[in-house]
Structures are given as structure tokens and as C-alpha cells.
Amino acid sequence: MGKLPDRSAFGASSQQRGDQQRAERERERLEKERQEREEQNQLSEEQREEIKEAFLLFDLDKDQKIDYHELKVAMKALGFDLPKAEILSILQTHGSLSEPANPNVPHHPRLLLPFAQFQSVMAQRILARDPRDEILRAFDLFDEGGKGKINLNDLRRVARELGEGLEEEELAAMIEEFDLDGDGAINREEFLLICHQ
Q: Which are the contacts of 179, defined by CB distance < 8 A and separation ≥ 6?
């Protein structure tokens, strides 16, 4: 009759597989952290500060985690108006379930996104933006009424909203300098040229 395999050999190989799996998970975690640090380093200080301010502003209960509604408005404030399904996907991928504050009180768990994960998600999205789209979004802020041109009235309004005390002659000179087609206004293409100088 055959001899049964040595149980200690089976236990050792099972232990080795477990150790290898733990080591692989740790390598993956460290690689993910490295990538997140690289993304953060690619952002400007202003972009990092905007991400932080949006999170702090909409973390209404100040627990360093944001829920679905807080995430939606924080992302919108940063220029990302996403559909519900995409917001939920972010929470499911990067978030975690809330813990009950008191185990004796009924608790309805919800997905929450901690600040570090919010920072990472927003860094990826900001870095993936097309600069042309960003410039055209800025153009739309100037172009009141969506006429496709920025005229002297638009420039005057934006200067007033920003608290810039520019004289009428200065505003007119700005339009004149960049108005390549001579129509008395700055169109989208002219605006793109200004921003790429």
C-alpha cells in the first residue's frame, strides 16, 4: 500500500503560497502608492490646493470622508460634472463602507471616499484633461450669452467681477491687440492663440 504524503510538506507549500500572495499584494500596494505620489507631483501647487479646498468645503460632517452627494458637488466644483453611474463607480472602486458610530443603533452603511483617494482620483482626472477643452471652458466664462465672441462688454464685466480696476482704454487695447480678423471681438480661435502664447 502506498505511503501518504508528508503533511508538513503540504503545509509548507501552502504557507509559501500564502506568503507569496501577501508579498504580491504588498508590491501592488506599494506600486499604487508610488503612482499616486507621481501624479501628485505632476500637479501644480494651485491644483493640489484646489483639490484640498473642494474636499474640505464639501466634507460637511468634517470626518475626512465624503459620501455620494458630497463627492458629486466637490467634483462639479472642480469642473467634472459626472453622471450618477460614474460617481457610484468611483465610490465602489476607491471608497469603503461606513462603520457604525454606535453598534447598538441601527446603521445603514454607505460608501465613503477618504481624502487620499479623492486626491488620487482628482489628480488622474485633472492630468487627463485636454488643455484645449480647458481654454474653451474659460472662453465660455467670458462669452456671456454664448455668441462665440468676447466683446468689450464681456471683458468689462469680467474685469468688474474679478475686481480689476482696468480703464476703458486698457480693455479696448486688449481687444484690439488680439482681434486678428478686425471684427471688434475675440473669437474662439483668437482666444486659443492668446492662451498658447
A: 185, 186, 190
